[in-house]
Description:
Layout: E1 2-5, E2 9-17, E3 20-27, E4 35-41, E5 44-47, E6 53-55, E7 67-75, E8 78-87, E9 90-98, E10 106-111, E11 119-122, E12 132-137, E13 142-146, E14 153-154, E15 172-180, E16 183-194, E17 197-207, E18 215-218, E19 224-229, E20 235-241, E21 245-251, E22 256-263, E23 279-280, E24 298-307, E25 310-318, E26 323-331, E27 339-340, E28 377-387, E29 390-399, E30 404-412, H1 413-418, E31 427-428, E32 440-441, E33 450-455, E34 461-465, E35 488-489, E36 498-502, E37 507-509, E38 512-521, E39 524-535, E40 543-547, E41 567-575, E42 578-585, E43 589-596, H2 597-606, E44 612-614
Amino acid sequence: MSDSGLRRTHPLGIFRDNDTIGLIGREKYSSTSRLVVGHGHGHNFKLGAESPSIVLPLGRKEHLPTISDARISQVLYKRVLTYTAHTENGPEVRIALRDPEGEMEVWDVTSINRHLVGTGTLVSEYMHAGQYLLIYGEHDLRVAFSKNLVAWHAGGQPIASPRPGYFDSRRLHVLSATHIDQGILVIYASRSTHGQTEEIAIGAVLLSKTDPECVVWRSDSPLHTYETKSKDEAQLLGAIVYDREIHVYLTTANEKLVSFHFANPYASPVQPRRATRLHRFPQNPILTPTAFEWESEAVFNPAAFQDNGRVHLLYRAMGPNGVSSIGYASSPDGVHFDERLSYPVYNPAAGFGAPTPGREVGNHYDLKANPSGGGWAGCEDPRVVTIDGRAYMSFVAFDGWDFVRQAMTSISLDDFRSKNWNWRKPVLMSPAGEIHKNWVVFPEKIGGRYAIIHGLSPNIHIEYLDSLEDFSEDNYIKSLPQAGGAGYNGRANLWDSRVRGAGAPPIKTPLGWLLLYHATDRRDPGKYKLGAMLLDLHDPTKILYRSDAPILEPEEWYENQGKPGVIYTCGAVIAGDNLVVYYGGGDKHIAVARANAAHFLDALTQGHTVPLTAVATA
Length: 618
């Protein structure tokens, strides 16, 4: 436990904001109706320049001395403020949204819901059946749901009530509600007074992530007990849930900020080894089909690259006609996509995937009839690298199974940034009469030449080129013989006994080229799984390390809707500390998974948890 003095700020609540702690308060000695917001770690908070107001539905500003338990949550693109207003009718939970034009200068209360009594907090980065989830209560703990953050309907029975004879026999006060792998972890406090001493006991409830009204577990003994003097008039501010610990903050009458911490009951056991796994974004899928006809049936298999501080996706899209085109979306952080165009940015050209005239009759989007993602023509499975001021997009030009060829086009980054879609005329890199997919271009030249991986098994096959545009019917890359729909022979008795091909373009790391690839298992047929290998930086035909278990496999509903059992990546980036992988799920949706890049590489090279084999380089 530790404490520090407070000066000009009266704290109202605490919340987690990415890797920092956010503190919401009000100025003690000011008559203004404005909040103060600070960020920091531990007890060192730096106040920001913003001083937002809370505005009620009729335009009146909230009276800040009568509020408490203020917290900010983020769900999808919205930042949501929850707080308790102490009214003449008792405490009630209010919900406010940040004015998107005001950069936190105004929080607008969406409505007054007087049935939401007590204290409440919104669950960040979680929705249930398209509804936001609020944990609240004055005596018991309850759940409420809303589709629009305005109208709220309460669940049935309380999810937790005081229990006579237990540590939490007094009223329950919610401190936080966090979406974790196991469900929704709710941290609460129950307070009791013994003479001049007050005891604050901390408990927890775990709710099912698929049915938040269902209690999976509740602590029978306190996670932690904190004692304070009654005269200190401790005010609870909230709890911060970390992977291994939980920190609770409170403030006292003598102007001290106090915190204590204890073990997270759902902390992963300490492992001597790390798992080489990717972790799905809780709000997957990140992109789904829309009402625009050209992408109304499916969006999947996106290329990904970074430019100007944003992550850009170029994804395969299909409508009822079953012809694939390329759509565009971008994100400031790699997981929340706030830009998506309403039109395709690249359409197949004649001789490069556009349907042969006359073949349109009777053809349409059909997952059963057309095993190539439901389509029968178009530009499929884009992959993008940026080299020397241009974005090179390779794709599969598909015009029936007698025309499945690897193609390449490019656009200047200046045109791309301006959204002037001046793509160069594509070229065909693979020969006529052969089926070739899953070719990837290295994102930089190797030995002064462009490099393309066009085969993975039994060896890495790379073509080195002086140009990515100098192809013709007589000048193409001669690749491996066709393997048919089952893929190439892989490693016997392992998950990748049938190798399908490369996934995203290789990513350069200090340890080697990180290459993701697709494979299937003879023992578990019908499932596309994702693995990883590390290639030598100077001679990428040498495999240094390779995962002996998949890093991602189809388990979620969006990976099994449409074409069941498919995970297929065409794009990955290193964003901050994370390896972020974008993939198509079930040939229908776009999802994202990520892992700490350093931990991932450490596991891959040292064989942690998932057994990995170092491949001889000699």
